[in-house]
Amino acid sequence: MALGKPNPRGKKIDKQPGSGPRFGSPLIYVLLLLVGFLLLRSLFQDAGFQRVPYSRLLERIKSDGCQKVVLSNEWVKCYPKPVEGQPKGELPWFSVRVSGDTQLVPLLESKHLEYDAVSESGMSDMIWMLIVPIGIGLLFVSWLTRRMGGGMPGGPPGVMSFGKTKARIYMESNTGVTFKDVAGVDEAADELKEIVEFLKTPGKFRRLGGRIPKGVLLVGPPGTGKTLLARAVAGEASVPFFSLSGSEFVEMFVGVGAARVRDLFQQAAAKAPAIIFIDELDAIGKSRNAGMFGGHDEREQTLNQMLAEMDGFDSRTALIVLAATNRPEILDPALMRPGRFDRQVLVDRPDRKGREEILRIHSREVKLGVDVDLKLVAARTPGFAGADLANVVNEAALLAARKDRDKVLMADFMEAIERVVAGLEKKTRRMNEKEKEIVAYHESGHAVVSSLTAHSEPVHKISIIPRGLAALGYTMQLPLEDRYLMSREELLDKMAGLMGGRAAEEIMVGSISTGASNDFKQATEIARLMVTEYGMSDALGPVALAERSRSPFLTPAQGGLGFPEKNFSERTQRRIDDEVSRLIEEAMQRARDIISRHRDALTKVAARLLATEVIEGDELRRILTENGALPVEKEGPAAAEQPGG
Question: Is 352-421 CATH 2.60.40.10?
């Protein structure tokens, strides 16, 4: 995120628009009351009576212990006859009548007892057998309908609500983000301020016959702050902000995506002026030219509906569609034409000044030590996006807390940068002495060759402490300033530096290891790009020889390279392979020549590295100068290569 942290005061109004608690029919409540009454009646029908076995009640009747008897088909109640010497107030006896008993009435008549019968109609049975099951069924149907419709308060959306949009709505300025929270992307922010001005004062543009763009597409690498920029627009304009991801449109049901698009635009139009923000637009906006993998009808229906909606709403309704993607090259051309996403705003990685501003925003709540220089931290983090810088600040704070410090020091920031770049330090991984020596010579080879080539980036640090998933050591190089182009000489020097590790193993150790595999991958990729895309091959000339589905914002490690489409012959392919091999072999030979001429300096660097495990760039250059590899008067981090190198 090329910007500051979202303000926690942002308030989300409604997770599922249009859903809410629904009240059932009054009949449901009548049935509930009736069922409750009958349950209470069954529970308390013998309240105030002493319940006894039926046989004991018959014995009392036979012994003239009852003054009055009340009976029904289900039960018998005996009101005791007062007896001298016994306390008054004895509870009447109650007993369930034995089914099929015909002796009770003759017994009462023989004892000349007063008895009465209670007439029970079939109403209770009818209620229990008919109305109660119906009521329970109605309750279940009501619950199931609300469940499927997503009407359960506080519950998840229901099955029948799959056609409803899942957009999260932030009302007015409650997004909690404004342009004050944005840094490092000033040009993009300036472009979006025009959108804010239109939403606030649309008459200013309509007066001259102008038409605001219907859609604005934010494109840029991951982590540069496209989403936060969109929220800042909504916060500045104080309008409803509908936010959702492109993947939330498509479900397992056919037609769901198109229905959600329609519902989203209907709700946004009803609250206009408003902003619709669709993150990761490439999830539904991929080109309908399916190519070799076939099409996806459901996604295409969703895309077609979005095209129709964006073409259909009137620009005078003050409804703006913002979208974000880091893969604009795969979007459908119909989305990119004027009238839909009229404007594309680049949200690029920040420069040195922008990185410093971002670091200041992210460190506002961090207690910094007096030695912390954010300008230096910004200089040490070229190519970092806002999310990377936020991670650096957070890692530095965590490291300081782990060491029980009261403030975050500059050393914590430097360690955090290494942790983000190279990975977590593996303190428990122990190498044997032979492997440690190989790694030391390998990393020293990288450092020496890079330091002795004229166009390489300065070496900042060398380490043989294992980090990350597989790195047994690393050589960190940092440019002196932000770079946007690389010359042929710089690429050749970079390849030579990559080959320095293997060359050092060959010459100094006498054998080679598997540690150079990643170096070869990087060198091969550089050489192939030089030949096929950059036109830097003398044998093939300035010709583009590869058409690749490649994102301009993703590196090859992030999946930026797709399947190459050959537009050349097999003969040309062999020439490309030969030229790539030649470039790599020349880089390898340059690395061998440099190391052979400066074996003593490399030996001193490797010995120091074995002793301390870490060498800073200044110490490396001091060792090279003392051993004659660098001229004394040369104060820069890199010197011109010796003749013949």
Answer: no
